[in-house]
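Entry for the shared binder. Reason: the reviewer on the internal report wants the predicted structure included alongside the sequence.
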Amino acid sequence: MNTSIRRRNRTGTAVTATALTLAVATALTACGAQGSADSPDSPGSPGSAKRSAGRAAPAAEVSDPVVATFDGGLYILDGKTLKRTSTIELAGYNRVNPAGDADHVIVSTDSGFRVLDAAGQKLTDIEYKGAKPGHVVRHAGKTVLFTDGTGQVNVFDPADLPSGKKPEGRTYTSAEAHHGVAIELKNGELLTTLGTEEKRTGALVLDKNDKEIARNETCPGVHGEAAAEGEAVAVGCEDGVLVYKDGEFTKVDAPDAYGRIGNQAGSDISPVLLGDYKTDPDAELERPTRVSLIDTEKGTLRLVDLGASYSFRSLARGPQGEALVLGTDGAIHVIDPASGKKVKKIPAVGAWQEPLDWQQTRPNLFVRDHTAYVSEPSTKKVHAIDLDSGEKLASVTLPKSSNELSGVAPH
């Protein structure tokens, strides 16, 4: 995003061999000195600790910043070298998502969504207050926030964030508060979920004037969203997915009576969506080994067995639309979404197991252009990996284990 305040041309995060040597050295010097990523079914309600906004005085702006959360704050890393450039104190359980431009990240806090100027290494005064801030969705040049505790939807253009003032934008309030998600399409239509605190049933679509134009309530337990090529938008259900395209809803059924797809990752150059897949409604924590590939053109669903389990923070898409899954075997599994063929595995971290509590740390996968950023909480490390070569470009050891990993990612 170009703005009158800052203008950058971001062209990727690959590091040359010469730069790599310097990058790793710099990162190691810093030692000691985290699809849509969606949440699990439990509402993204952070802890109740009162937050502090203390921060170190930032130096120069950071190139392609990456942000990792930890218990008590945020680490800002240089996207090329992974050098830790700043630590921002922020008490409680925080979550992070790209804001949609080249500088900012959305931080979910106890009190609502806050906007972090990651490039400038400081929290801004822009805040969308409300209990239980949930999903953050970027699509068609707009960023959409869904606040679970109020059911409020806020839509804004991230190009307005550098002004330092809260952007003017669209606001819609759901009939009832629930753990939901919303997305605005290119034509101004707003798709948003339906439900209550006890039960979620489907989605509706509003025109530019907030007049309802479509509704479907055949999606029990609706959760998460992703957009595919041709602006086909899907939300997950406990028995498949619900797809909205060209003004109509279509249900794609799971092959099992209970086949829950709660987290998805899409690519605008592929009609196929990547989703998780769970089949045990009674499990305290199901650790699935299969992922789902949903073809939004054909209305079909294919399952692919990875041979390893994964978590809700494991799904991403590559620059060519590849389906990427970070497995508990420590590898990034690369899948051709069209054929379902497993193309290769890229070693990333050590073997791990998903913890029972969804707020506990586990490896995260964040992909930007041709670079995969992977956190490894057990070693307090974050790695940058070239998706094409599989080469580890840089690593850094942080003072504390990180939880979520994200960064700036322009539309």
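Summary line for the report: The chain has one domain: 17-34+36-407.
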